[in-house]
Amino acid sequence: MAMHNSKSALVIVDVQYDFLPGGALAVSDGDQIVPIINSIQEKFELIIATQDWHPVDHQSFAANHEGKNPGDLIDLQGLTQVLWPVHCVQFTKGAQFSSDLNQSQWEDIFQKGTNPEVDSYSGFFDNARRGVTGLGKFLEDIGVEKVYVCGLAQDYCVKFTAMDSKSLGFETYLITDATKPVNLKAEDGDVALKEMQDAGIHLITSKDL
Ligand code: VGL
Ligand code: ZN
């Protein structure tokens, strides 16, 4: 029996091949969270996934900036932007969800990063907080109160999704054993955890569900 009622939603962030070992922007041990996410899905009646879904000319790709490398910082329309390897290009294998991930109970998928001019880490808003994916309205319209976040990467898309969820007024939970950081800097994952905790996001593990 599902422990979480219809007022709770599980949001699975970006569990796509390019963020898994062997992918273009691989998160170390990212594949280890897949069985954990599969096992927690049965606790939820409402499951949503987000999908990083970039056009090939996306301005977050170092390859689209002469002389720049992944990890370099640029100014993109007034926002500081980390440049990434080409990843999650629309309709490529790297943008697909892991086939090991159970997708059978997903209610909907929200795509992000489709505007080439602005990156979109969060599943709710782009990084300029101008464009919306529709996820916030979707959750509000069906009366969701609690949002549980897991997936990749802990220090980018998971963090931004959880922070936006909290700022939109959802009671927000990060499932810490169902996420992994990309750690451009070694401490990024831990810094992100602290930032989320300081913002009032509850850090829990899959065993607490
Ligand atoms: C992500 C960097 C660029 C993520 C997406 O899913 O965490 N990180 N695009
Ligand atoms: Zn991306």
List the helices and strands and how they pair.
Layout: E1 8-13, H1 33-41, E2 47-52, E3 73-76, E4 79-82, E5 106-112, H2 135-141, E6 146-152, H3 157-167, E7 171-180, H4 188-198, E8 202-204
Parallel strand pairs: 1-2, 1-6, 2-5, 6-7, 7-8
Antiparallel strand pairs: 3-4
The structure holds pyrazine-2-carboxylic acid (VGL) and zinc ion.
Strand content: 15-25%
User: Fraction of residues in helices?
Assistant: 10-25%
Which architecture would the CATH scheme give at its second level? Answer: 3-Layer(aba) Sandwich
Q: What's the total count of β strands?
A: 8
Which strand order spans the largest sheet, edge to edge or round the barrel? Answer: 5-2-1-6-7-8
CATH fold call: Rossmann fold
Return the CATH class: Alpha Beta
Q: Work out the helix count.
A: 4
Distance between the termini: 12 Å
GO molecular function, one term: metal ion binding
Organism: Algoriphagus ornithinivorans
Keywords: Hydrolase, Metal-binding, Pyridine nucleotide biosynthesis
EC number: 3.5.1.19
